[in-house]
């Protein structure tokens, strides 16, 4: 890449000094080139000073049972308070108490405290990802609130749980994030280059070809520590000025944790980044490496300053650390309300006398952090809006025209989401368990209905009735199989969707179209194979036209069922509820499909018009039986199932199925568009 281009893309060679890396760009891109240490991680354009003052957070004192009754109660209260001058607030519990401090660029602040002390709540407030009632101020560079939609997207946030596609490799995970998040001015080779550099920096190059793995894909993949590094890498890709991490070292051995904290320290120092991380129980070696410590106890700020000064400060206020103890362990004991006199109070309630005494001592002699002097934020840096990901200036393409470069093009977003989804879902769709189920059932049907569809068998009402039953089973079995696996899609991907939407990586419509495209091959392969096996074994109508029409009906039905499954999943985004709703719907559709009950009560008969199975079955009967079975002139004298069959118009049946498919797909889109952000 020409040096002028590199400057334009914010990869200034002289600013990079962290670690010598030499990587080969082979995968996919076909480029093979050594990258010198001079091109490692660029400095973010805008250093960020984070200031928080008097931050208090409250949660409802009582758990509110979700459900219709509670919603009605809430609505009633809202109406009452609208007509009354007194605003009645539900009882609340305060979980953060006046947290105040400043984090300068280049600093790493470790938030420590016992379990339940408010670390996660506080860090998610700093990231603008907490909807709890909060007072006080949190500002970046005195102007950006973390909840500002545009600003929030520029903050790197690594949550406690790893939100990743389990079926992708480490390289794919980072590469697809790079494509979705980095500006389109960067070429594909540059994006790959950045991925490789991050793999090197985080020490995960050797696992770049391994899958993430996990419960959903049923395979073990990379280790917990490596997953955490991938999650950090995803955020580092777009070079944020602020990186917030929630317990990045939990579950890691002490050496790996030490390396990780070391990497964070270097990233802060070299790139003038502002880094805040919660940390549960650091080893003494990690503690010594910490720059700044923010100690919390039951939502109170107990100490904020140089980690190295904390021991002396606590000794000054009467909490001297016993000799030889790990300071981190000691501070956690102190913050839990244990004074070190050998008597564990055992209680960590808000009225804990030990904690009260500590807070009094802190109040009497507060820690005064040595003056750091005014941090001068480099004026030559561009405004925040230009500093990150999507809005970097594309000075190569639009030099001098003042146009801003947005993220990847829409079709690229759709393409990446589609490919990613195909790779992720192949495990579930083509798992040996599900393949065994469908193929076992296909062979069983073939054996049970062996050659039932040949002309001679159709000559009797009983024989024709058997074929009608087979056709009903075919559409029911295949479509329900897809319906049930589709309901898991959105609940499983909910966290990923929310995370990527919060980062502004793509619009919902791109996600929807990408997923829809991925569904086509995934939902086609099994129905086509199973239908072909049954078709041949059962000896159904031996013409190419009938075969392809049958396949078309089966596929439209499967896509319709898949859409219904997606809709249920998207509407509930909760697996248990989605499963219950799917069972009720599935049985309703089956019972009203026309096979089991002929005389549906008039007041319930409208349901049968909504049953896609009914139209699919009618269409298949039209294709296979019309003109091939004896005409029943007098229904009372005919036996069996065929007595009441009216063939109807095949075109109409296709039309209704297509209409149902379109309406359901559109409903899935609406449900995602308006529902996903509220969960
Ligand atoms: N949405 C919420 N509703 C009710 N209580 C909440 C909510 N969020 C947090 N809390 C409560 O606030 C307190 C602090 O929780 P938080 O998760 O921030 O603690 P933590 O220090 O991160 O704990 P851990 O180390 O165990 O993750 C806890 O008592 C928790 O029960």
TrEMBL record:
Recorded topology in the membrane: Multi-pass membrane protein
Nucleotide-binding in keyword set: yes
Transmembrane residue ranges: 435-461, 467-491, 512-538, 544-573, 580-597, 650-672
Gene3D superfamilies named among the record's database cross-references: P-loop containing nucleotide triphosphate hydrolases
The keyword Membrane is annotated on this UniProt entry: yes
UniProt keyword terms in alphabetical order: ATP-binding, Membrane, Nucleotide-binding, Transmembrane, Transmembrane helix, Transport
Annotated ranges, domain ABC transporter: 79-323
Any single Gene Ontology cellular-component annotation: membrane
InterPro entries: AAA+_ATPase, ABC2_TM, ABC_transporter-like_ATP-bd, ABC_transporter-like_CS, ABCG_dom, ABCG_transporters, P-loop_NTPase
SMART domains (UniProt xref): AAA
Superkingdom: Eukaryota
Subcellular compartments: Membrane
Protein name per the record: G-family ABC transporter
């Amino acid at each position: 890449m020409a040096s002028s281009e590199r400057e334009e893309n914010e990869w200034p060679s002289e600013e990079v000094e962290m670690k010598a890396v030499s990587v080969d760009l082979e995968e996919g891109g076909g480029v093979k080139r050594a990258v010198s240490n001079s091109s490692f991680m660029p400095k973010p354009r805008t250093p960020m000073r984070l200031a928080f003052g008097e931050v208090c957070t409250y949660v409802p004192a009582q758990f509110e049972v979700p459900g219709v009754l509670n919603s009605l109660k809430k609505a009633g209260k809202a109406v009452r308070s609208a007509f009354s001058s007194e605003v009645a607030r539900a009882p609340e519990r305060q979980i953060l108490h006046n947290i105040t401090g400043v984090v300068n660029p280049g600093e790493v602040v470790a938030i420590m405290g016992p379990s339940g002390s408010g670390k996660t709540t506080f860090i998610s407030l700093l990231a603008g990802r907490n909807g709890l009632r909060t007072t006080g101020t949190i500002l970046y560079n005195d102007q950006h609130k973390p909840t500002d939609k545009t600003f929030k997207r520029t903050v790197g946030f690594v949550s406690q749980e790893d939100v990743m596609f389990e079926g992708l490799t480490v390289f794919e995970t980072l590469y697809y994030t790079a494509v979705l998040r980095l500006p389109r001015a960067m070429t594909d080779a540059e994006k790959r280059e950045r991925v490789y550099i991050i793999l090197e920096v985080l020490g995960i190059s050797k696992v770049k070809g391994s899958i993430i793995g996990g419960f959903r894909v049923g395979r073990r993949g990379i280790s917990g520590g490596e997953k955490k590094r991938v999650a950090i890498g995803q955020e580092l890709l777009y070079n944020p000025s602020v990186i917030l991490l929630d317990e990045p070292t939990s579950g890691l051995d002490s050496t790996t944790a030490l390396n990780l904290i070391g990497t964070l320290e270097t990233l802060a120092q070299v790139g003038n980044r502002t880094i805040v991380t919660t940390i549960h129980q650091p080893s003494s070696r990690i503690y010594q490496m910490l720059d700044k410590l923010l100690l919390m106890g039951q939502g109170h700020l107990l100490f904020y300053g140089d980690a190295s000064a904390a021991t002396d400060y606590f000794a000054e206020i009467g909490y001297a650390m016993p000799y030889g103890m790990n300071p981190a362990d000691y501070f956690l004991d102190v913050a839990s309300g244990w004074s070190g006199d050998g008597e564990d109070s055992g209680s960590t309630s808000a009225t804990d006398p030990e904690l009260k005494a500590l807070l009094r001592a802190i109040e009497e002699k507060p820690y005064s952090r040595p003056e750091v002097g005014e941090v001068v934020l480099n004026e030559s840096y561009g405004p925040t809006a230009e500093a990150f990901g999507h809005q970097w200036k594309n000075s190569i393409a639009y030099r001098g025209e003042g146009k801003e470069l947005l993220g990847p093009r829409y079709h690229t977003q759709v393409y990446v989401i589609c490919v990613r989804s195909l790779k992720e879902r192949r495990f579930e769709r083509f798992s040996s368990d599900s393949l065994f189920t469908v193929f076992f059932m296909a062979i069983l049907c073939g054996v049970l209905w062996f050659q039932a569809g040949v002309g001679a068998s159709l000559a009797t009402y009983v024989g024709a009735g058997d074929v009608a039953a087979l056709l009903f089973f075919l559409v029911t079995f295949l479509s329900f199989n897809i319906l049930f696996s589709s309901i898991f899609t959105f609940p499983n991907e909910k966290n990923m969707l929310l995370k990527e939407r919060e980062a502004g990586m793509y619009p919902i419509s791109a996600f929807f179209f990408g997923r829809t495209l991925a569904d086509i091959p995934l939902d086609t392969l099994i129905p086509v194979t199973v239908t072909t096996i049954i078709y041949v074994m059962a000896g159904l109508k031996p013409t190419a036209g009938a075969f392809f029409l049958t396949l078309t009906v089966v596929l439209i039905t499967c896509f319709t069922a898949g859409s219904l499954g997606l809709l249920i999943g998207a509407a509930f985004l909760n697996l248990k509820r989605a499963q219950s709703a799917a069972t009720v719907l599935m049985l309703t559709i089956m019972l009203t499909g026309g096979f089991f009950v002929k005389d549906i009560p008039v007041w319930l008969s409208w349901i049968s018009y909504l049953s896609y199975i009914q139209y699919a079955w009618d269409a298949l009967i039209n294709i296979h039986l019309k003109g091939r079975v004896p005409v029943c002139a007098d229904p009372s004298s005919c036996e069996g199932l065929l007595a009441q069959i009216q063939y109807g118009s095949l075109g109409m049946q296709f039309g209704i199925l297509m209409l149902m498919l379109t309406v359901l797909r559109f409903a899935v889109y609406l449900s995602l568009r308006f529902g996903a952000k509220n969960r």
